[in-house]
Specification:
This protein is an alpha/beta fold and 444 residues long. It is built from 16 helices and 14 strands. The protein has an eight-stranded parallel beta barrel with strand order 5-6-7-8-10-12-13-14, surrounded by four helices. Strands 1-2 form a two-stranded parallel ribbon. Strands 3-4 form a two-stranded antiparallel sheet. Helix 5 runs parallel beside helix 6 and helix 6 packs parallel to helix 7. The structure holds D-xylose and calcium ion (CA) (2 copies).
């Protein structure tokens, strides 16, 4: 049976193609700076949005028209696996990601949930034998079930802490079984609503202990996937512990975890934290902590996590700029943690949305590489900071000065001269590159 019979294969047809089921810019085999687009971009389909979610929101019932809607329980789970691998092949994506409960229904007990999961994981493993699509990461959903009402590893209830540990233990086993390249920790309910009932220190200490136990268990079973923390400032909790990269990094440093983790950075979470996507990527990159990306976008008019497919070319370009400067994503990838809008309920929309996201990142990749090749931003930035390459600035950088010497320097200064930051000019240069990837505009 075919679940997506609109198309046999979505292929690259070039910028002028009128075929909506084709890539206009994503050409997996095309080389950019010595690597194919497929190797650079490492696209991944998110199982939860594409196969599990039904379009329900706080005001309305599920409305997605899906060929598996008539099924239930394990039959539904199995149909979704079939559909998933058909989509992966048709889109030609190299990776996918899932939460435990996306792929298999929860049973009445933990043991039954694990059995359900084992059965589906065996089926997925079978499909993976003949598919090129690999597991980018899996994770445990520790936010939907009522038992996680007060958190998982930061719950006030030690039984919940134990249950969460059991789920992550299983998740690591599944990751190993399927050859997952990463394992993600997103602290869905790891945060709090009010300090009036919260022991903040104990919760944070317990979270640190939890991560150390996860590291130990991964070592014990020989799971060598990269561990990723995914920051998000709020939603569902008011105060989420992994607010953004900076606070996540401080947490990892305090609990001696930096050698074991990198960040999975989601665009929409960055904007919820009041940052740009590229800010979060840069902050992780300069600290050597950029691991993977949840590629989506938010809506500036809405204050919540809308998880839209990424189509904003400024954002994809500036994101790819950071990723290229990082030397790529290593084991990470660009996971479309994105869902079609509730109004886009036909099965075709699943294809259109992925095509839109993949083409947007392919454009971003090409434009970012041109910006790097031409040194446009690099030259401008080096010039802007050139005062630190000589004289007193160099002494600061080399650690060869102190407040006495700096005061002496300041005392003999006349009027200080600053230069323009020229951001409007830089934005117009970015526009030129976006409109014409062949533009060459030198730094001024
Ligand atoms: C929710 C998060 C979640 C993580 C994985 O906002 O984005 O989907 O990526 O648990
Ligand atoms: Ca995410
Ligand atoms: Ca999200």
């Amino acid at each position: 049976m075919s679940y997506f019979n609109q198309v046999n294969k979505v292929s690259f047809e070039g910028a002028d193609s009128k075929n909506p089921f084709s890539y206009k810019h994503y050409n997996p085999k095309e080389t950019v700076a010595g690597k194919t687009m497929e190797e650079h971009l490492r696209f991944s389909v998110a199982y939860w949005h594409t196969f599990t979610a039904d379009g329900a929101d706080p005001f309305g019932a599920g409305n997605m028209q899906r060929p598996w809607n008539h099924l239930q329980g394990m039959d539904l789970a199995k149909a979704r696996v079939e559909a998933a691998f058909e989509l992966f092949e048709k889109l030609d994506v190299p990776f996918f990601c899932f939460h435990d409960v996306d792929v298999a229904p929860e049973g009445d007990t933990l043991a039954e949930s694990n059995r359900n999961l084992d059965e589906i994981v065996a089926m997925i493993k079978d499909y993976m034998k003949t598919s090129k699509t690999k597991l980018l990461w899996n994770t445990a959903n520790m936010f939907t079930h009522p038992r996680f009402v007060h958190g998982a590893a930061t719950s006030n209830n030690a039984d919940v802490f134990a249950y969460a540990a059991a789920k992550v233990k299983k998740g690591l086993e599944v990751g190993k079984e399927l050859g997952g390249e990463n394992y993600v920790f997103w602290g869905g309910r790891e945060g709090y609503e009010t300090l009036l009932n919260t022991d903040l220190k104990l919760e944070l200490d317990n979270l640190g202990r939890f991560y150390h136990m996860a590291i130990d268990y991964a070592k014990e079973i020989g799971f060598d996937g990269q561990f990723l923390i995914e920051p998000k400032p709020k939603e569902p909790t008011k105060h989420q512990y992994d607010f953004d990269v900076a606070s996540g990094l401080a947490f990892l440093q305090k609990y001696d975890l930096t050698d074991h983790f990198k960040f999975n950075i989601e665009a929409n979470h960055a904007t919820l934290a009041g940052h740009t996507f590229e800010h979060e990527l840069r902050y992780a990159r300069v600290n050597d902590m950029l691991g993977s990306v949840d590629a989506n976008q938010g809506d500036t008019l809405l204050g919540w996590d809308t998880d839209e497919f990424p189509t904003d070319l400024y954002s994809t370009t500036l994101a790819m700029y950071e990723i290229l400067k990082n030397g790529g994503l290593g084991k990470g990838g660009l996971n479309f943690d994105a869902k079609v809008r509730r109004g886009s309920f036909e099965a075709d929309d699943i294809l259109y949305s992925h095509v839109a996201g993949m083409d947007s990142f392919a454009i971003g990749l090409k434009v970012a590489q041109r910006l790097i090749d031409d040194g446009v931003l690099d030259d401008f930035v080096s010039e802007r900071y050139s005062s630190f390459t000589e004289g007193i600035g160099k002494q600061v950088v080399d650690g060869e000065t102190d407040f006495h010497a700096l005061e002496q320097h300041a005392l003999q200064l006349g009027e200080i001269e600053n230069r323009s930051g020229r951001q409007e000019w830089l934005k117009s240069v970015l526009n030129q590159y976006l409109l014409n990837v062949n533009a060459t505009v030198g730094a001024k």
